[in-house]
Description:
Shape of chain A: globular
CATH architecture of chain A: Orthogonal Bundle
Order of helices and strands of chain A: HHHHHHH
Number of strands of chain A: 0
Oligomer: heterodimer
CATH topology of chain A: Arp2/3 complex 21 kDa subunit ARPC3
Number of domains of chain A: 1
Helix content of chain B: 25-40%
Distance between the termini of chain B: 45 Å
Structural class of chain A: mainly alpha
Strand content of chain A: under 5%
Number of strands of chain B: 12
Distance between the termini of chain A: 16 Å
Radius of gyration of chain A: 15 Å
Amino acid sequence: MKKFVKPILIFIPLAAIQLTVIPLISFQGIFPDLILILIVFYSIKEGQIFGMILGFALGFFFDLISGGLIGSSMFAKTLAGFIGGYFYKENDLSNIYSFNFLFITLLAGSVSSFIFALISYSNIFTNFLSLFFLQGLLPGVYSSIFTLPVVVLKPKSLIE
Amino acid sequence: MSSFFNDFKEYFLLAFLLTISLVLIPLNNNPQVKNLRTFAFGNFAFVNEALASAENFFALPQKLERAKKLNAELMLRLNLLREYGIQNIQLKKLLRYAERNKFELDPARIVSRLVSLGRGSVIINKGKNDGILAAMPVVDEFGLAGFVIHVSPNFALVRTIQNTKLKISITNQRSRENGILEFNGEKFLIRNIPTSADFKVGDRIVTSEFSSLFPPSLPVGVVVAKERSPSGLLSSVTVKPFSKINKEDFVFVLKFVNQAQVDSLKLNLFRTEE
Lengths: 160, 274
């Protein structure tokens, strides 16, 4: 239970940035998802079960505070925690401090954004491929770019 | 059995959590869920407001707020003048119309926004304590931007017009043709109007007298294209909205809400969105 305190504390400023600053750099509804990066990070660090529960809880909080459809982010973020947790290695953080983190975020981000879009925008897109590309892959790529500071700077304080 | 559960516990947990998420989606209109949401966004908006204030620190926000309010008032007044010019025959009607359009504008700052293709929403720093009620229309300095959907004591959640469920009853300001404007996730369309309907590129689109949610003659957008359906009988008109709510820091709540209208069955959209 104690392990959840730190990511939840980090979530508060991240969610505020996600709702105030990130919209300024979004285009055509495509935006980087900082909450997703946090969930993937902790899933790789702590494991699949931890990642799923964290994704579920943070997704719920985000749905509540953002005015979004309650359940949609929960679903997508739980899935992101599940995917991120696949790459968990006990006592080995090489997946966080290498470009693997970028690719894992790309994978988890693409899948979760796509599922989120299926739940939220299914009435908008009739073309499955364009939905996957525009609302799955592109947001995943955009989010993964934001993992670069972790990959390049390797901040030790995050791991402690 | 126990070993089977242990082997697949991650998958069981995943299925369980995903099921709960899916079950919650249809419960969004449940009064308890609504209260929880209002409580949550109302409290977290303080954090967002602090961050938004820091962003605007160098922008002299109060001066900007006054200027934008003045601009919005002028926009509405200009729109009324256009109406006078076009509808000079219906003078009596116009006078009544003018009385109805003395809108009280309450400026509000956007403290957070949810980027979403079909359900865009923003949170503003005005709430019940400022006299804001659910269903009040929201404009920016250019035109109709959305409507209030949830209100906490100090903040309000505004659903923007970029909402696939929103159908706006509109009128062509020049030809007085009516139609229903909707957002398809990419652009705003007036669908299935007769090909003979008088819509031309450049026509201004305003809210209609028939709108149960918005007051009449709020500027909505401008016609940018008209396309015939393959059968040739019907057309669809593409409208570019005036509102730039995705880029604006300030909006204005029109203190207009007709209780009789709120009670009417016509506000089905508002009810589903609530």
